[in-house]
Amino acid sequence: MNPSPSPAGATIDAAPIDVAPIDVAVIYGSAREGRLCDTVAGWTIARIEAAGGFAVDVLDPADADVARGIDGKDPAARATLRARIARADAYVVVSPEYNHSFPAPLKALIDSAKQEWEAKPVAFVSYGGVSGGLRAVEHLRHVFAELHAVGTRDGVAFANAAGQFGDGRLRNPEGAEKAAATMLARLSWWASALRRAREFTPYAKAVA
Ligand SMILES: Cc1cc2nc3c(=O)[nH]c(=O)nc-3n(C[C@H](O)[C@H](O)[C@H](O)COP(=O)(O)O)c2cc1C
């Protein structure tokens, strides 16, 4: 592909912005026995793999290693969890709504790290009853803003999710697949842009 001239006269390589895959951590919101989260997160990971350009890690508060990291009594497990959060360029949180917010194990996972979240985008796949988990997502936006992470606008919300995933498969996938494709395109844009920005100027230097 030929380079195209920039307004300043220099040349810009018009090849795709990022060749390296985006490291994305898919974060489970529910740690409940018999949770629907496995189904919704499985669907989400399949959409990420279909989109391409991502390398997926899974952070599940019900996983023993992650749970040890959250617990905080084991410094090595906490360091490993923080390193996994740090390694990600982007996050997709898959969360149900519990009592108009998001589940406590997800909050504990988020609170296990701090600088690791900074200047990175977060997309949301939510589910629940009539609200589709959107009230949980609005609360998560506040929490991630405090951590200097960027909540992206486009997500996927499943109202009456148990019915939609009747036998473990999404009954009418078309709308949700389209929403997921948009979510991931925007997440990829933010992740590439912010990865470059962090490399250019570490976020810690953005102080008065
Ligand atoms: C403790 C609890 C509180 C809930 N509160 C809400 C709620 O406020 N709004 C809603 O739409 N659904 C609510 N639900 C329904 C859940 O969002 C729904 O059952 C979801 O599938 C649970 O996710 P999980 O199975 O992955 O844990 C609640 C479920 C539980 C267990």
From TrEMBL:
<dbReference type="Pfam" id="PF03358">
    <property type="entry name" value="FMN_red"/>
</dbReference>
<dbReference type="GO" id="GO:0016491">
    <property type="term" value="F:oxidoreductase activity"/>
</dbReference>
<protein>
    <submittedName>
        <fullName>FMN reductase</fullName>
    </submittedName>
</protein>
<dbReference type="InterPro" id="IPR005025">
    <property type="entry name" value="FMN_Rdtase-like_dom"/>
</dbReference>
<dbReference type="GO" id="GO:0010181">
    <property type="term" value="F:FMN binding"/>
</dbReference>
<dbReference type="InterPro" id="IPR050712">
    <property type="entry name" value="NAD(P)H-dep_reductase"/>
</dbReference>
<dbReference type="InterPro" id="IPR029039">
    <property type="entry name" value="Flavoprotein-like_sf"/>
</dbReference>
<dbReference type="GO" id="GO:0005829">
    <property type="term" value="C:cytosol"/>
</dbReference>
<feature type="domain" description="NADPH-dependent FMN reductase-like">
    <location>
        <begin position="23"/>
        <end position="161"/>
    </location>
</feature>
